[in-house]
Amino acid sequence: MMNKKVFIIHGLETSPNGGWRPWLMAELEKRDVYACALPMPEPDNPVCKEWIDEISRNVNRNTNDEIYLVGHSLGVPAVLRYLEKDPGGVMIRASVLVAGPYANTGNKKLDSFFEKEFDFEKIKSRCEHFAVIHGSNDPLVPPEDAKSLSKCLNAELTIIKNGGHLNGSAGIYSLPECLHVLEKTMHLFTG
Length: 191
What we know:
The chain has 191 residues and is α/β, with parallel strands linked by helices.
């Protein structure tokens, strides 16, 4: 039987164990699902290629497993660039995109993630299911970005009222909406 594995990709200037990530890992562990928040290289000065390589390295070590990706903030374009990069690679069961930008908001540190438009057809060919989760009043990434992403990916969209950037600074230390999507897709794809 294939094991289910969830890799969580944090955002800019954060760490694997911030916000709701420890809660999500603990909840998945209770369900016998392996979950790991990957430490992304140089989170204060991220380079897209290095983040893609880190995701690839972890996914490629687990090619016999059912893989799920969860990205938060800058982790979202990192997941999308990873999916776009290698259309012949491992099929991802589901990607949950939390508070992620669709385009650069003018932060120079994000430039390498937005050098070109996303190739959504290629991205969709690598992942079976997408979900987008966003705060209604996100101060860093406009909710319109979530609407654009969900439209381009045919993804279900969940807007969390007054969720801010859905991070620790916004007081978000659990994200049941993300857990629900993972549980649902894990049941969708059993067998």
